[in-house]
Structure formats: C-alpha cells, structure tokens
From TrEMBL:
Belongs to the cytochrome P450 family. It is found in: Endoplasmic reticulum membrane. It comes from Pomacea canaliculata. Keywords: Endoplasmic reticulum, Heme, Iron, Membrane, Metal-binding, Monooxygenase, Oxidoreductase, Transmembrane, Transmembrane helix. The keyword Nucleotide-binding does not apply. Pfam families: p450. The lineage of its organism: Eukaryota, Metazoa, Spiralia, Lophotrochozoa, Mollusca. Its cofactor is heme. GO terms for molecular function: heme binding; iron ion binding; oxidoreductase activity, acting on paired donors, with incorporation or reduction of molecular oxygen; steroid hydroxylase activity. Its main location: endoplasmic reticulum. Cytochromes P450 are a group of heme-thiolate monooxygenases. They oxidize a variety of structurally unrelated compounds, including steroids, fatty acids, and xenobiotics. Heme binds at C299. This is Cytochrome P450. The chain crosses the membrane at residues 70-95.
Length: 674
C-alpha cells in the first residue's frame, strides 16, 4: 500500500501549496479529509479515486454523504445503545426502517459491485487491499471449512465498510489536530523538520525510513493523547474479574473512557499541555495510551493509519510551515453528542511555503521541462508494483521454455518483458506482449522500433516528431527505454552463461540480502554485486555506441578548442573499452565496479552530469527486478555452441548482434536435485 499512499501525499502537498499561493488559510479537516478518503478508498477497496480534486466521483460522493450522516445520527443512536442496552433491538429496527444514512445504499452497492468484479476476475490481478483480505476468508473462498474461521458475504462487506469508516475519520481527525498543534507550537514543528533532514535527507519517506523518525512518532502519540479520535471504546469481559473491589461478571459489557484515561494526571503529568517529549523519553506506561486500544483487540488499522499520518506530515512539512495567527484559538471546544472528537468549528490555519534551500530539497533541472533526484526516484517507486507483475510473467515464460527443453532467445524474451514495462510506465497502457503479440500497441510499437534500428530512418522520424514535443518525448522514451533495457538484459544473460561463477555469486547475494522477499525498490538497492554485474555488462556491450551534445560555452581540451554551440560526438563504447580507464577491457570483471575504483566520469552507459539519462532509475530497477526473479528460478548454462565472441550489425544506432543469442537454461530445483 506504501506506493499508493506516496501518490496521495504528493496530491495533498500540491493542494496545500495551491491554497498558500492563493493567500488563503487551510481548512485542515477538508484538506486532510480528502487525503484520508483517497488512501482508505484505495487500501480498503482498491478503488483509486482523487477526492482531493474530484468530489463528484460516485464513490466519493456516496461515501461522503454516508459518513456525514453516520457521524450525526449514528453517534446519538450508539450512545443510546450503550446507555440503555435493552433498547438495542428497537434501535436496530429504527436504523433499518427509518434512519438509514443518505448514501448508505449506494455506498453498499458500490462495495458489493467491487466485490463481485473481484470474484469474476478469480485469481487475476488480486489487489493488496483490505477487501481482498476479507474475501480470502469468505466461506466459499477459504480452504478452511471451520465456520469460526471464515466470513459470510455480508460480513465481508460489513467489515470492509467498518474499516473504511474508522480509517477515514480517525486519520483525517489526527492530521487536522496535529496541524493545529504544530501551528501553536512552532518549536515542535521545527524539531520535526530537523529530524526529517537528519534521518531522511531528500529520501522518499518509505516504510523503513519513517521508522527512524522517533520524534515525529512522539508528536503523533501526544496529538492522539490530547485529541483521540474516539472518546470511548467498549469490550466484553471474557471472565469474571475484580478491580479495586468492583466485580465485573463474565459476559458483562465494559465501557473504557479513552479520553479520560489519557487526560488523567496520574498517568500523564500536566495533561493539558502539549509535551511530545513524554513519549520520546519512553516514560509512558503503554497500557495508559489507549488511542488504538490495547492487547488482542488492538485497532486492526493502526499500522496503516500511522504510516498514512507520518508520510503525509513528512511530505507536507518539507514544503510548508504552519503559522500561529492571532485568531487561532488556543483551546478547542468539541461538538456535544458525538462519539468522535469533532471540533465545534472549522480549524483554519495559515501556512507559508518553506524556503526550499532550508530543507535541502534542491531540485536541479536536468533537462528542460523535467526534474531529477527526488522527483524521478518517487516516480520510479510508483512503478514498482507494475514491474513486479511483468517480472512474474517473464519468469513463467522462461520456465515454460526450460520445460520444453528449448534454448532461450534472450532478446525476444527480455524484449517482451521490456515492452510491457515501458508501455505501462510511459503510456499507462497495460499490455502483455510477452504473451499477446497481436495487441495493437505491441504490433505498432514493434514496427516503429524495427524501423528505428537504422540511422537514416531514425533521423527522419526525429525530424517529423520535433513538431509535436510531447509525443516526441514519449516516443523517445519508448525507443530508448525498450531497446537499451532489452539489449542489456540479453547481454547480461549471455555473460552469466559464460561466467557461471559470477551467476552463482549473484544468487548468493540475493539469498543473503533478500532471502525469499519480493525484490522491492529498497530491496534491490542492497544488491551491490548485482549492480556491478549490470555495470560491467553495459561497459562491454553498451546498447548505444555514441551520444552527442552541444557545447554550452567555449572550452579548450588538450589544445583543441571547441567553440560555443558546436556539436560534440562522445564515443561511449570507445571510452568504456579504453584500457587507460578499464584495465583488461575485453575481460568480464564485475569486481572492478564492486570495489569502487572506477572514475565515475569514465562510465558513460547513462551519460554523465546534468544530461544524465532521464530513464536511468527506471531501467536499473527494471533490470534488477527481472534478474532477481529469473535467477531465483533458473540457471543459464554455457553450451558448446555458445560463441565467446559475436559480431555487431553494421549501420545501426544500437549495438545489435548479427544473429540471435540462444542460451540454454535449467530450473534451479533440477540442479539442486541432480
């Protein structure tokens, strides 16, 4: 769910910045409510909405009216049912026939429709959300036939709806009160920003990163202590117990006053003062902090809620500063009669943009209209799950070929994988060219790329496309992203077949660093030897022979003057096969990169400096994920007919071998057993 939350965080930050530019105050509940709605819709039901912008989306509209009414009507009826339990059957009758919240039926129909669509899809494209988790426990889906361990269809919908309601209101409320408290306490706000800088720098705030933010965690806990989402919770005594002379019989209902406990000076000295340090120093008895409950009935959505709140605050506080103004009241009154903690008026907070330099978020332009560094990394991170899916299909295809006893046409196999990734990440088109070669996009793109292989046609295409820059950029990304990545994977499989010791060393690293984990963006970053193998493959078989640049100013190099505006052709292949920079350049030695002895300017596979390849991060992620998936299952084998040297097709922009590279492979479990 992490990557979906990242996307919602970016939209949240953009919305706050827009409000600041208009000179308006921020209605924190509305802004954070939209963010919470987007996250919970995606994580509970797999519905990707943008309620931060599109309030007319049917799901958003129905959920909004449903939530509004359930907060008002539901609160009074719930309080009445707790005060007079004997009235519960009557209250249920009233709810069913007279007091159904507006939007309730539409909302439930939406949930039912989503559930039915999932069931029709069977095992295809299962989403990692709460609804899918509930469906896997459903009576007709679960292999466990014990009635106590399965859910009915009605229970699945009910549980998912409860998760949605609780997850939305509690998270939005926490973010609202936290922004309010940070405006009142600027010293706390700045301390959080300093911690973010020290612990994360410019990194994307992923799950592992935010675990380092101990002070932010303390601020969230103190916010929840002062303004818990719920005033109370209820439990049933599982056995008879006596506490301070009061006996609670087995089966009795017990109301736990969350807000009262967390404002009790016995547990929290100076309870009306906002003191995050009380949690940071670890002096709080964990049983006294009841914002998420305690024990076996701890809130099911606690981890998701904390992740959501932390990610949002890191994104926002890097860019925005909440300010205390004269009209910002120092104490809040709550609406009476509600189960939830709801202020009696809108909390509107003034904010200003932070000096970007002050938070070290310097965005360096790497080419006109694009940005690198933090933004590029984040975009790649969002693509991770789609690449995972393509990797799974790639591995299945290779296994099928192995089972048939055939050699692998590595360019065709990896080319299909790369086509799928680049079509999805560049154009948002989900194709399966690894199986469906007749898809219109695949067919047309293949024809385009085939023509692109010769120099003259490439120049003609560029001349035409320069008139439509948006299309040109996308097509350049397609051609560069497809051919270069597919080519590198092809040559890498070839090198691994020729050098089995390198292949086994990579596999050992994968086992040591990842175990059986799915190779995520963070995970593959640990694979230093794999990274070295990719670099050495690109050094020996770089997809592109040369690249050209224009001199931005006059410069003299070794007595040769290059005037400003002159075109310069950089012979990538020649530089990376120069023994001055790479001793024994004709030998495949990944260790030369692993040991860090290479001058980075001499490795030009992705260019260098401000004009560094815009697709570098995506290409590296794509290659690493593919190799991890494949090498866990398959071993490339050297055969007598696998030539040690091959020729490159003349007249091509790309380094394309003059014949198909066909490599034999075997299943790794086969190797292990014999």
């Amino acid at each position: 769910m992490e990557h979906y939350i990242q996307r919602c965080c970016i939209q949240l930050t953009n919305n706050i910045e827009e409000t600041i530019r208009r000179g308006e105050k921020i209605d924190v509940k509305r802004v954070y409510g939209g963010y919470a709605m987007d996250v919970i819709a995606g994580t509970a039901f797999g519905v990707e909405v943008n309620s931060q912008k599109d309030l007319d989306h049917p799901f958003v509209r129905d959920a909004g009216t449903f939530l509004t009414d359930i907060l008002y009507i539901g609160s009074y009826l719930l309080l009445l049912s707790k005060a007079v339990p004997v009235l519960v059957p009557f209250i249920n009758f009233l709810v069913k026939h007279f007091f159904q919240p507006r939007g309730y039926k539409s909302f439930i129909r939406n949930v039912q429709r989503i559930k039915e669509e999932r069931q029709l899809e069977e095992n295809r494209n299962k989403k990692p959300d709460f609804l899918q988790l509930m469906m896997s426990c459903e009576e007709n889906q679960s292999p466990n036939k014990d009635r106590m361990n399965v859910l009915s269809s009605v229970e699945v919908i009910a549980q998912a709806s409860v998760f949605f309601f609780a997850g939305y209101e509690s998270t939005a409320s926490t973010l609202q009160f936290m922004a309010y408290l940070l405006a009142l306490h600027p010293e706390v706000q700045e301390k959080i920003v300093r911690e973010i800088k020290e612990q994360l720098g410019d990194e994307i705030p992923d799950h592992d990163g935010i675990l380092k933010l101990k002070y932010l965690d303390s601020v969230i806990h103190e916010t929840l202590r002062m303004y818990p989402s719920f005033y109370f919770t209820d439990r049933i005594a599982s056995e008879e117990v006596t506490i301070k002379g009061v006996t609670i019989p087995k089966g009795a209902g017990v109301i736990i006053p969350i807000a009262n406990v967390m404002r009790d000076p016995e547990y929290f000295p100076d309870p009306d003062n906002f003191i995050p340090e009380r949690f940071y120093e670890g002096s709080v008895d964990p049983i006294s902090f009841l914002a998420f409950g305690y024990g076996p009935r701890l809130c099911l959505g606690m981890r998701l809620s904390l992740l959501e709140v932390k990610m949002a605050m890191v994104h926002v506080l890097r860019r925005v500063k909440f300010l205390k103004t004269d009209d910002l009241q120092e104490s809040l009154k709550m609406k009476p009669g509600y189960v939830l903690t709801i202020p009696d008026r809108v909390i509107a907070i003034k904010a200003v943009m932070r000096d970007v330099a002050a938070t070290d978020l310097k965005v360096r332009k790497c080419r006109e209209g694009t940005h690198c560094g933090r933004d590029c990394a984040l975009k790649v991170l969002r693509m991770e799950h789609y690449i995972q899916r393509c990797c799974v299909q790639l591995t299945k295809n290779i296994e099928e070929i192995v089972r048939r006893g055939e050699k692998i046409d590595v360019k065709r196999v990896y080319g299909g994988y790369t086509m799928d990734v680049i079509a999805g990440t560049t154009f948002g088109i989900e194709v399966n060219s690894q199986k469906d070669l007749d898809h219109p996009f695949v067919r047309d793109a293949a024809g385009f790329l085939s023509d692109l292989g010769t120099q003259d046609k490439y120049l003609v295409v560029l001349a035409i496309l320069s008139k439509v820059e948006v299309v040109a950029q996308a097509l350049i990304f397609l051609s560069a992203g497809y051919e270069t990545t597919a080519s590198t994977l092809q040559y890498m499989a070839y090198c691994l077949a020729l050098h089995p010791e390198v292949q086994e060393k990579m596999l050992r690293e994968i086992k040591e660093q990842l175990g059986d984990e799915i190779p995520t963006y963070e995970g593959v970053s640990k694979l230093k030897y794999l990274d070295s193998v990719i670099h050495e493959t690109q050094r020996m078989y770089n997809p592109v022979n040369s690249v050209n640049r224009v001199a931005s100013e006059e410069v003299t190099i070794k007595g040769i003057t290059i005037p400003k505006g002159a075109g310069v052709l950089i012979p990538i292949t020649s530089v990376m096969m120069d023994q001055e920079y790479f001793p024994d350049p004709d030998k495949f030695i990944p260790e030369r990169f692993y040991e860090g002895s290479i001058n980075p300017i001499s490795f030009l596979a992705f260019g260098f400096g401000p004009r560094l390849c815009i697709g570098m991060r995506l290409a590296q992620l794509e290659m690493k994920m593919a190799m991890v998936h494949v090498l866990r299952r398959v071993k490339f084998v050297k055969t007598d007919d696998l030539q040690d040297v091959f020729k490159i097709k003349p007249g091509s922009v790309f380094n394309i071998p003059d014949r198909v590279i066909a490599i034999k492979a075997v299943m790794r479990d086969v190797v292990a057993t014999g």
